[in-house]
Design goal:
With 254 residues, the protein is α/β, with parallel strands linked by helices. The protein has one domain: Rossmann fold, CATH 3.40.50. Helices cover 40% and strands 15% of the residues. The chain has helices spanning 29-32, 34-37, 64-79, 91-107, 125-128, 138-148, 153-156, 159-177, 232-253, and strands at residues 5-6, 16-21, 42-47, 84-89, 113-117, 193-198, 217-222. Strands 1-3-2-4-5-6-7 form a 7-stranded mixed β-sheet, sandwiched between helices. Strand 4, helix 4 and strand 5 (113-117) form a beta-alpha-beta unit. Helix 3 (64-79) packs across helix 4 (91-107). It is globular and about 45 Å long. It starts with a strand and ends with a helix.
């Protein structure tokens, strides 16, 4: 499991687990450190995808199914142990959704909460009509990256750094841009779903996510653009929000 999951704080006594999925090109460290600051009742598992960090020599995933199969295969035994929630930002919102769907469909397992951040639902018109970025030349791709923010300009100006992170980012975008999912005929989940976004990000069709659950559906907007969650103030708000909802769901579960 260590190959696929980063866990900074092992908490066998934790009441629930939070499984976090990275944004495009991202690693697991940003989320793994949440385990150091969240309540001791929550254990954080941060998903580590092929082609980065300790898996840098592995080929990138070619499609969403590869990611889902690996994550579900590794996590299934532990997800049966205790309640779990999913959190994903941008590309991670899609992988969270795809993993949740597979867990429900094939194993009748459901999270106690899903937090989907910075992304339109995969079947929404906004998403379907979004321009493809993974096919851009490196120069045009870097220009687009500088526009959406979240990557320090000094990194984008450093050819050696760009050479390191650009392939993973493009590979992840290729996966998500070719991921197709029809709108569910009926909700396949009953757990609460919370959608989050930065107020200054490009508009996402967050309401479309409501179709996946018959449970509570909430939208929460925070100050900032696409990478609003990197701001320390927003991160505190976000972690407090997640903790409150997980502790509430723990009571319901008991």
């Amino acid at each position: 499991m260590e190959k696929v999951i980063s866990c900074f704080q092992s908490r066998p006594e934790a009441v629930s687990r939070l499984i976090c999925f990275p944004w495009a090109g991202g690693g697991s460290i940003h989320y793994a450190r949440w385990g150091n600051v969240l309540s001791s009742s929550i254990e954080v598992f941060a998903v580590k995808l092929p082609g980065r960090e300790s898996r840098s020599k592995e080929p990138f995933s070619q499609n969403m199914q590869q990611i889902v199969d690996e994550v579900v295969g590794v996590l299934l035994p532990v997800l049966k142990e205790k309640p779990f929630a999913l959190f994903g930002h941008s590309f991670g919102a899609f992988t969270s959704f795809a993993v949740a769907e597979a867990l429900k469909k094939h194993h009748n397992l459901e999270p106690v909460h899903i937090f989907l951040s910075g992304a339109s639902a995969p079947y929404s018109e906004t998403r379907i009509n979004a321009p493809k970025r993974s096919d851009l030349s490196d120069d045009d791709f870097l220009k687009w990256l500088s526009l959406i923010g979240g990557t320090p300009p000094e990194l984008l100006a450093n050819p050696e750094v760009v050479k390191l992170f650009l392939p993973a980012l493009k590979a992840d975008l290729h996966v998500v841009e070719n991921y197709r999912r029809d709108k569910p005929d009926s909700p396949f989940l009953s757990c609460p779903v919370t959608c989050l976004d930065g107020k200054d990000d490009i508009p996402h069709d967050l309401q479309a996510w409501k179709s996946i659950t018959s449970g509570d559906f909430t939208v929460k907007m925070l100050e900032g653009s696409h990478f609003y969650l990197k701001d320390s103030g927003n991160e505190r708000i976000l972690l407090d929000f997640i903790t409150k909802h997980l502790e509430t769901s723990e009571m319901d579960y008991l």
